[in-house]
Fold these 2 entries.
Entry 1:
Amino acid sequence: MFSDIEIAQKNEMAPIADVAKKIGIDENCLDFYGKYKAKITMPELRKFQKKVLDPKNRGKLILTTAVTPTPAGEGKSTVSIGLGDGLNKIGKKAVIALREPSLGPCFGIKGGACGGGYAQIVPMEEINLHFTGDIHAISIANNLIAALIDNHIQQGNALHLDPRTIIWKRCVDLNDRALRNITIGLGGRTDGVPREDHFVISVASELMAIVCLSVSISDLKKRIDNITICQTYDKRAVRFGELKCTGAIAALLKDAIRPNLVQTLEKNPVFVHGGPFANIAQGTNSINATYSALACGDYVVTEAGFAADLGAEKFMDIKCRTAGLSPDVVVIVATVRALKMHGGVAKADLSTPDTDSLRKGFENLAVHIENISKFGVPSVVAINKFVTDTEEEIELLKKLCAEKGSKAVLCEGWGKGGEGMTDLAHAVVEIAESGKSKFHYLYESHLSLADKVRVIATEIYRAKSVEFPPSVLKKLREYEERGFKELPVCIAKTQNSISHDPKLIGAPKDYVFPVRDCQLYSGAGFVVVLAGDIMTMPGLPKLPAALNIDVDDDGKISGLF
Amino acid sequence: MFSDIEIAQKNEMAPIADVAKKIGIDENCLDFYGKYKAKITMPELRKFQKKVLDPKNRGKLILTTAVTPTPAGEGKSTVSIGLGDGLNKIGKKAVIALREPSLGPCFGIKGGACGGGYAQIVPMEEINLHFTGDIHAISIANNLIAALIDNHIQQGNALHLDPRTIIWKRCVDLNDRALRNITIGLGGRTDGVPREDHFVISVASELMAIVCLSVSISDLKKRIDNITICQTYDKRAVRFGELKCTGAIAALLKDAIRPNLVQTLEKNPVFVHGGPFANIAQGTNSINATYSALACGDYVVTEAGFAADLGAEKFMDIKCRTAGLSPDVVVIVATVRALKMHGGVAKADLSTPDTDSLRKGFENLAVHIENISKFGVPSVVAINKFVTDTEEEIELLKKLCAEKGSKAVLCEGWGKGGEGMTDLAHAVVEIAESGKSKFHYLYESHLSLADKVRVIATEIYRAKSVEFPPSVLKKLREYEERGFKELPVCIAKTQNSISHDPKLIGAPKDYVFPVRDCQLYSGAGFVVVLAGDIMTMPGLPKLPAALNIDVDDDGKISGLF
């Protein structure tokens, strides 16, 4: 048994120029970052964008999502990558589009985010560590915005910015709980104006959301201009554009908006670009990466963060709406182990066969299957096989899915790569080509912001009603009065339950969904609505993954998972 | 008249592989970052290091330094780059080694740091903005160290770290005064342990100093292990190695320790790598970049930050000592304008001819000429020509230098590129080949730390004595008792005067040099001694350079100087 990084390091990569050639991208249309990573040039990106304007020129769009996460893990990226390889294995021109990993989880609890086993993207160490610098660029641009705001106040505060109202937060791409609540500007007259501040992890920043939604530098600049940074003392909302430094921020991000190309272990093309969180932001790779994949591939496998209630809903209602996309099929990843946990089994007992708990935990998957159908998109269940799964359990899971009208396919990408994913590939192709998808949004843009929340909470989260504090209703009305009524909403809640309460595993229903706060992301173009305690700055665990990572004198990294 | 960025953008660059070939570096020994930037591979770097072990295999080492900076500017980088081009112009194989620019000054007051006019390094926008990500890697590695320290305390504090004694600071590569003095860890039990903290600009961090002094990944790891992070409650000094995460930090820096290759406007090779401040740190590019240049070129032009009292002294006593280097000639950059300011002329009046003030301000240059001779190295003065300089002023300056036994050469690199630098190139070759350099350190390693400070302050800064607070003497003795007596000292003081007091322009003497504090950089391998108020986190000015910077839809940047 080899570890993920050992498998990745044993693999011989193809030069990325050769991988690009397979999907019709010439070497001249790549900016190389070493031999195995490249960014698409701006003219080529524009060519892709123009091509996909006509839906007939697009590949089929396959979205991978999952059941509600448990400590057992579900392996969504592994399935997405394996499915891409499986599609290529059965002779289809398939391209994968994924998010790029944050350094926070990498040194924290989760490790890397490049798939696993024989379904990985490579070079995994470089993708996991600095990659092509996109997240670093976003972090420094985010922090330059913050420094410019504080400097405006420091230098006389001509715009009368109220330091108590600054909602733009600094960021760092690490898990660093000590930066959650801080006071800055201490020390005296020359050292800034004292105020409360908060760092978020870079991937939870509005700027990450903006970069992933921007299709051009002008689009990026318009969004940066529109960021709401704070209020004046007389309560006027202030846009960042008023500080007249938008060009400098965009200059820092000029390369970060262009997609990166890498490969799977089986040398198939993967666009890895942008990594917004799936609670506070849209949770999916950049629009530019999806456009590029749709322009180059006949089939595009992409994924959305966390479970279908968070990532898939945002993919449909935020990303598809902004980008004019329309998914042809959704793959819902489930594992026997995760469903048993939803059925009440403790993690330590997961290896014991237990069809009763599986049957009970299936309720969670059933909700997600139903939810996807509410967008008019057909779905297929991918059973990501673990060595401890029994045949009886797998057969039961297939039967339960069939009873819900959904096909379930066993996947062995982790152990066998694309070869273990051909069944799912065939199933996905059949559905995608059937024309069954009648995609529509969950809610229309003209609904009030509060009603949009009500639709998502009742239809997707299965709450019986939504409780809004009066202060939130007032803020939502203010956003509407400022002209933001048409925006989609982005609900930030726990990923560990379909509800707002992480303890409610399985399929909670008949509860009241308690909204806590809201925030306008006028740059990204959505309204964040918070329910429960949302982590925008994770912490490190007692034994962080950083303890295991090492590098030898040749630069070879070990202990990265 | 074109701006620097316009000149740079009109220039057609050679592929960096062709530039590398000119100095015998094969394409296979480069990791490309686009077509015009590359990192040297680890095996090639080792080859260079092995070659320069024998001084006979090294090129001649030319150090560029300058008079004490004034608001008039002196153009040290412009002279260094122009000299490299001038040496190539007269048929010598010359390589340049420079520091990489910080983003702080770039968006603050100073602008970029790639030379000026027709003596520039390119691609200047990319070198000035993210370059190959070295500083981003250092920033995040620095902040991961901080997060791991705070997490150790959070998770039970097994080592009994005293939060009041943490000297490891977080960093960001920006001018952000509001982060100078902060409190972190507020909010409650799950949000860290409250304590005071401070951000420094990344280039002032000990980790930047470490990366620039590390010749291999093992060397890097040893230095990271040895970083003093804080004390325990019973006052034992704690090394970062005790947290057992050194491998993870080194993994983040595995590429950052390898030199970057770019080119001048005249397509000559330049290693641009590492950018430590010249007050709190050693102020010169990485040892690996200097080794690489010495292995590839017959002549190597490098520079040290600020004036000769700061940068050159540290170059000699810290970098040369650590790396076994020995400069053959020092170029001291001066301008008529800067010397007139040292003679008391206001900035607004600099265009008025004024030989009296020039004569008076020459005192500053005279001190630096004498100082360089104290290291046994011959020097030559480079008069960086400005359009307002009169012939009479230039002749007077040459005459004054001659009276000090120093040749002064007029330089027109800014206006004419290498063609305007051939006189200096000939002068430098003549001195370098003369064998006149009898380089020695200013002080021996066996002196006590306090005596090392006394030697520098009296010999170089021209103080009559040094005043140490008892607390500093105690700390210095403690460092000695812990085994750090042999380390060199790195004095952090203002760059605007030869003394500790920025108001004392010209050639101050007969004053008391007041030490304020000291700090052990046990990872980098020197003791920082602070005098006066040192800025380790600059602030943005009222009208930051960020106001002028823009980028168009093709990614072309404007307004960057």
Entry 2:
Amino acid sequence: MQIALVVYDRFTALDVVGPYEILGRLPDAQLAFVAERPGPVRTDTGFLAVTADRALDEMPHPDLLVVSGGPGTRAQMENPALLDWLRAADAASTWTTSVCSGSLLLAAAGLLRGRRATSHWGVLETLAQFGAEPVGERVVTDGKYVTAAGVSAGIDMALTLTGRIAGDEHAQAVQLLTEYDPRPPYDAGSPDRAPAHLVEELRTGGRFSLT
Amino acid sequence: MQIALVVYDRFTALDVVGPYEILGRLPDAQLAFVAERPGPVRTDTGFLAVTADRALDEMPHPDLLVVSGGPGTRAQMENPALLDWLRAADAASTWTTSVCSGSLLLAAAGLLRGRRATSHWGVLETLAQFGAEPVGERVVTDGKYVTAAGVSAGIDMALTLTGRIAGDEHAQAVQLLTEYDPRPPYDAGSPDRAPAHLVEELRTGGRFSLT
């Protein structure tokens, strides 16, 4: 199974490295980080570069694609090279997936019209501008389209997909291998339960920029 | 605050990319991926290379160091260049931390003698060979030494550290930013609760190699 992890300047690393870590354990998986041009691609914080081993053009028809999100999404929403590739790849894919604001790229490519989808909570409503139905859940499956909420949600999405592709037992083995038994020291990972002033602060661009 | 993320051939990406994503949001954080030699460093699956922006020698005294685990750990346990760097860095650090089998590197460098520490469940007992006390918890703090269990546990460790360094509110803001509200689709992330035959299969090197 060919799996393309799509990255671009100022993507968010965990968005795709979570799914990479899980999906890379699928039987016969062939994963590649892909970008418009091969070579190092720098993340949103500037502190990390991952290597895109292949150009988008070199991997036109992956069986599964995972589109990263991040502050760089906004620029890519107007990049015809990426949007054209997404449309062509999606036409032949078995699964088309995204993490975080990566769903805005699928939406901008016209792939989520009339579909239920999710995104990072801070940009979720933007999906509606592209004819998608925003759903505030952690992993949303609509046919072959699987979208995950912000950043860390890609891990849950990838385990869900692993179960669909290789069966529950294999997915459980991968969960055990990666010791994915989360114990967050706080309960602030969702805008429904985080302190309201922090939600507001992030929404208005205080402390961190969301996009 | 200078933060060094220590990687080497055949490290496990999520071990350090989890902490990178969280710790990179500390106020005034300066993170760098470091390796014996700068340049691309390939992970255990072979499907990903991250760039080590600096050589170990170029960052001799980070305030905080995070040591990755992975199948490559075993070779590094006999690499004097890395072990010497760990000892010198630890002598000046505020926090010395590891994820997964990375704690075996701290232990092999002699830094965990008489200390409580954790590791990936599959190699946890190996810590005792170096005079550490193996503790089967997700995040173990003993003075300035903070060790995390396997792979995904680095996220919990990094949020715990963020709270200690920058306060609970900042840690909660980072948790909200990264939407870390985990919803694993299975309950198999710990050897205590995963199906026993899967634990046995992984221990004996079936399906995946643990180290």
